[in-house]
Amino acid sequence: MMAVPSSPTPLVAMVGGGQLARMTHQAAIALGQRLRVLATSADEPAAQVTPDVVIGSHADLEDLRRVAAGADVLTFDHEHVPTDLLDKLVSEGVNVAPPPLALLHAQDKLVMRRRLEALGAAVPRYASLHTPADLDDVDEFARGLHASKDTPFVVKAARGGYDGRGVRMARDLADARQIAGTYLASGVPVLLEERVQLRRELAALVARSPFGQGAAWPVVQTVQRDGICVLVIAPAPRLPEELASAAQRLALRLAAELGVVGVLAVELFETTDGALLVNELAMRPHNSGHWTMDGARTSQFEQHLRAVLDYPLGDTDAIAPVTVMANVLGAARPPAMTLDERLHHLFARMPDARVHLYGKAEQPGRKVGHINFLGGDLADLPKLRERAELAAHWLSHGQWTDGWDPHDPAGDDAEQESDVGAPPACGGEERRR
Asked: Which of 358, 310, 308 is nearest to 26 (CA)?
């Protein structure tokens, strides 16, 4: 029997006050639900918009109890809550989704890799290092790969990394030993991994409810720069149907085997020989699913709420043949022009841009928003990708990389040839000055 929320208005508690919680709050409003967030400060993205905020730490049991009190379910904006605290909440009757035993596989890369291997899922070859003494095993691992001293490796902190943090590309074996030694000296176990020959990176996003219902969105391609996702293309172009189906089946099977409740993102490597390897797991709404806010019948944020409350899951079909999502990252030097004025110029040039800003202060490399563009045909992808990258760079830097001038009528006309219905670029602009 499916669980029935205990109050007429369901209350979902979410640990973390970041942009994922903010966008989950948006979905909760439409469903007539309440979202309470545990934020570290009142200026975090979700704390700016939801009226039900608990200020505290995800590492403090009393703060976790406060945010969970009276809620139908406790879920997550990030995976960094200590497992022993979650186990304590479960023993006190708190409904935690995903449950701690499942969430552990998104918290600890070594636990994840061992379990994936046990389930028969293909992963990159790796070695686990727990103490500085284990560095003696690095040479043996390299020999097993038939690697030379000049072979590059990937070194990952087993816990705590995200958005490229805790992941280092080692130039060679000596560099890998040094990076691993630094992590180990600070008490952090290490995953030493072969550098896979990639064709590209993919992500399979699914959701699962406690009732056991599963749903999968189209598999997407993710584009990384400096360890941070900068672009998502949905669906992944030129991905053979059998490979896309295999990725979806794998993600749904992992969700069931691990006992996931909510959204699960399975980050994948597509190798040059056409194989799929599991890279990482995330058990929450994920950057690779931001395209669903405008490009799918059910967004990942609504689906996560449906799943953790054990509602029937929504339709995951794409509503456009292709969607491109571009992350807006803080520039090295924030531009003098305000973000609001940059947004005004963007809409003047590209009225079809679907912009989602997070209410964050602009800092170098920090995700402060994302933009979705929908295309009517896969043939639109090159132009759509170009426009998404132009738009994201403009919002980040206040500069058009193609030299477009909003005050040049000729440039305005050229842009509107590809953006039918766009208003004049300078319309209403005088009032902004």
From this structure: 358
- Cα 401 to Cα 389: distance, rounded to the nearest angstrom: 9
CB 137, CB 129: distance < 8 Å: yes
Question: Can you give the pTM of this predicted structure?
Answer: 0.91
Tell me what percent of the residues of the chain surpass a pLDDT of 90: 80
Residues 6+ apart with CB under 8 A from 183: 155, 157, 189, 190
Residue 417 confidence (pLDDT) above 70 = no
The HSE-up count of residue 145 (CA atoms within 13 Å, CB side) is 22
296 SS3 class: strand
| Cα–chain center distance at 152 | 26
Length of the chain: 433
CB 409 within 8 A of CB 425: no
pLDDT, tens digit, 9 for 90 and up, residues 284-333: 999 999 999 999 999 999 999 999 999 999 999 999 999 999 999 999 99
